[in-house]
Fold each of these.
Amino acid sequence: MAKIISGSAMADRLMATLARDVASFSRRNGCVPTLAAVLVGNDPASEIYVRRKISQCRKVGIGSIEHRYGADCTEAELRSLIGRLNSDSEVHGILVQMPLPPQIDSARILDAIDPVKDVDGFHPVNVGRLSTGTGGLIPCTPMGCLMLLQSELPGLKGKQAVVIGKSNIVGKPVALLLLEQECTVTVCHKYTQNLADICRHADIVVAAAGSPNLVRGHWIKPGAVIIDVGINRVQSEDGKQKIVGDVAASEIDHASAFTPVPGGVGPMTIACLLLNTFKAADGLVSHDPRLRVDA
Ligand code: GUN
């Protein structure tokens, strides 16, 4: 049987450590690390994600302020809010929940966030820092994937890693993090030919395609470690809705370990967001030069 890598358990441990660090930071500096969460429109999934992020902040003593705008919000309104949050010394992290309504250019909104407060790690400066291995804030889901992998495979050097999916939020940054760990990385996407054959050579598979049960058991090399980033809502045989990953979990007994869905990468994403908010607060309060763009 393949081992289940519990993201819920690892996230709980991370949050327990974070709660202690946040308490000590707040005592020492007389200020509470604070996240501003911006939600535009009424996408039900985004509502759930933002609510969850805010409730987890509370658990570790991180402050949160929610800013809500209707689906008719303009780009100018949103840019003006971000300008205010950038210069508010009581706000350390800014998160703009994606997707944004079509009248708003998401890239321009991400550009407007001060990179030192960009706890999603989506600003081009942080993307550049990640690609050159020079610090900055790292995107939350990729950071969670790496921590889960490292818990199972302490030495990643020289491993063959296959990343399925090339999104800016997961696929590309995961590939960069694995490259930084000296894995040999292949990034696959929907136009990749012979995906099954490529996977069969992998010691590590990170599935982030957003396609339910895409990765089949016979694609997996015996002993491989599998990180399943997919969160897909499907109808089960009894007609109920259920959440499944991108990997056919019932077919991978011969893997050495895998992350379940739910309870794998999801909880780690939020724990890493809290970690980034703490890091941003720590960097801002201590004026950490590694975080400053203009240093
Ligand atoms: N939408 C889907 N994933 C994310 C994420 O990690 N951060 C933000 N801000 N929006 C998202």
Amino acid sequence: MVRVRFAPSPTGPLHIGGVRTALYNYLFARQNGGKMILRIEDTDQNRFVPGAEQYIIEALDWLGIEFDEGVHLGGPFGPYRQSDRKPMYRQYAEQLIRDGWAYYAFDKPEALEAKRKEYEAQKKTFQYDCNTRLQMENSLSLGMEEAQRRIDAGEPYVVRFQFPDNIDITVHDMIRGDVTMNSRLLDDKVLFKSDGMPTYHLANIVDDHTMEITHVIRGEEWLPSAPLHVMLYKAFGWEETMPRFAHLPLLLKPEGNGKLSKRDGDRLGFPVFPLEWHDPKSGEISSGYREQGYLPQAVVNMLALMGWNPGTEQEIMSMEELIKLFNVEHISKNGAKFNLDKAKWFQHEYFQMLPDEVVADYLQKELDARGITASRDYVVRVAGMMKERITFPSELWDTCCYFFQAPTEYNEKDVAKRWTPDMHIHMAKVIEILNTVPFEHDAIHKALLDDYIAANGLNTGKVMNSLRIAVVGRTVGPDMITLILTIGKEETIRRVERAIEKIKVNS
Ligand code: GLU
């Protein structure tokens, strides 16, 4: 039974890189008929940000990334928030000490800082490891008895992992293959603090084990920690059930150098967070995909392809298709560059798939906001006709406004280019035609374009675009006759009359 977890730390809004990690876990779980778990890793109380957990839940819910167990749902392996699991970690830290895999350390922050400085002065980097640990204050250098005395006296301590000297540790990564690191490169990481809080490393391994996680799919930034994690499984005697690891490629800046950051989003004008985020401390607001009008399906599809491909040229894939097609083999080892044009392309494609009725709902909101009334049929018709020109709902009003209100001004450039001094004569003719021929496409087309414009050797572009200026205010919009038929005969005539009166050009 496949069991995967998404294990964010509630330190702020969820970055879209984190969303992608959640998505890949979800696709993998669903594809394998497994379970998807949301665990909150909040052991670092200094970095805790109120509202972040709720944000994560809301964001993933918006995107349709569903969980089977988790902090918001409960489940048989709960609690799912590490701070609520606090009492269970101590025994594991003590087990490691008993078995010779860890030790108590009493070094004060100042002492560690002094050591770092001392090494720096010699152009070296201090690492708490097998070469240095005996120079430090810990149960290895002081002896267990002295260590126990200090603990009993209430002296603060940490528990550090004791890496064996000079062994090669291999992480079998599903994406990268075997990654081997020598223990000499690794420092004796802190696993537990005397306030009873485990660090990320201990809590993560204990939880993955006790929650029976089978696959750990997470960002590449955790690869350097993986050898420690592999050693922890060994130290606990849990090697047999150790999850399989997959470290996902980074999401890169659009230029390709370096990790995609919030600042890149601000600089280039795209959100790096799924939902808008109001920072509780600074009050700063960061934009979100949802608030910018992106559709969740578009965001999911775009993120799925940032670091993975189905092995074909197919780009548009629903969640169901992604679940079918997803495979770890096709995850790239290289970082994936963020591409804003591609994000917009996906958004446009998904916007086109919306039923006219749904686009009409968006449009209706714009009308309501402006106190404009129109029949539902009319709104749906306009929405259907115009949606191909739209990427974001925020563009709807500007693109469709002239279906609901007559222009109040006429684009000067367009007028200068098209509205020749004799144009009022041709526009008067348009009114006459509309008043005499049947109000339907072919009849208007024939009367206007063939029998009037062509028969009199007029410039079609000039006349038709002037008509467009009269009706729309500028030379944009759908097919002119369709437009006339949509807004209606009376309204068209009113607008043309008004333009004749208002647009004055020098002869
Ligand atoms: N809490 C870690 C994070 O914020 C989880 C890393 C992992 O998945 O092991 O990314």
